[in-house]
C-alpha cells in the first residue's frame, strides 16, 4: 500500500476523533441504508480509531462479529482501548494492510471509509474485497470528492489548502477525488446493484469547523517531503485558515463524501 499521506500515530488521533464525531450520524444512516443488520459478519478496512467498527459491532449484535484492519499500530491500540471501555465482545482489531484481506467467501459486509483515496491501486483492494464476500454480500464505501470542498465566503488560504491536498495525493499515485469514480471501480471489480448518495457536512461553529486546519497540519510533513510547499508559506496558510475559522459567520465544509453500496453477484470477473 502507498504511504498514507496524513500523519498518523498519536499526533493524528485528534483529527480522527473529531472526524469520527463530526460525521458519525451520517455514517450511521449510511450503514442502515446499506443493509447492516443483526447476525452478520463484517470487515472494516482502514478502521482508524475503531469508532465505526464499534458502531457496527453493536448493530450486528452478539450473533454477528466485526474485524477491523488498519496499518497504523497506534490506531489499533486506540481501537482496542475503545473496545475494552465499551465492553464489546464481538469485535476484533488487527494491524494489517488492506491488501492482506484473506481470500474466501467469509464476510456478509465489507466497509471502508476514506481509505481508497490514499491507495495507489484501489482496484486491487476492491477485487480482494469482492473475493472475501459471500454470494449476495455487500460492500459499503465512503470516500471523498475533494474538489467539492468549499468555504464561504471564498478564501484564498482555503483554496490553496484544497489544491495542495489534491496535488499531494496525485503525486503519490492516489486520488483525492475518487468518490465520484467509485461506482465505475466497483463495476469493474465485479460488483452489481450499485447505488450511491452524497453527504457534505458544513459548519459555522463547532469541532467540525476545525477539520481543514487540522488536516493541513496533518499533511505538512508529506507536503515538505514532496517539495510541494515551503515551510514559510505553509505556516502562513495555516494561520490564515485558523483566522478564517474564527470568524463568527464564516462557513467551512467537509469534502464532498460519496456513500456507495454494491453487491457481490456471481464470480470474480
Description:
- The structure is a single chain.
- This protein has a single domain, classed as Rossmann fold (3-Layer(aba) Sandwich), CATH 3.40.50.
- A seven-stranded mixed sheet has the order 3-2-1-4-5-10-7, with helices on both faces. It has a three-stranded antiparallel sheet with strand order 6-9-8, with no helix packed on it.
- It is an alpha/beta fold and 269 residues long.
- Helices cover 43% and strands 23% of the residues.
- The model has no long low-confidence stretch (mean pLDDT 93).
- β2, α3 and β3 form a beta-alpha-beta unit.
- α1 crosses α7 and α5 packs across α8.
- It contains eight helices and ten strands.
CATH architecture: 3-Layer(aba) Sandwich
Distance between the termini: 23 Å
Number of domains: 1
Helix content: 40-55%
CATH class: Alpha Beta
Poorly predicted ranges (pLDDT <50, ≥5 residues)?
none
Task: Label the structural class.
Answer: alpha/beta
How would you sum up the major sheet? 7 strands, mixed
Total beta strands: 10
Q: What is the averaged pLDDT score?
A: 93
Could you give the order of strands across the largest sheet? 3-2-1-4-5-10-7
Shape: globular
What name does CATH use for the topology? Rossmann fold
Order of helices and strands: HEHEHEEHEEHHEEHHEE
Q: Write the CATH homologous superfamily.
A: Vaccinia Virus protein VP39
Number of helices: 8
Range of strand content: 15-25%
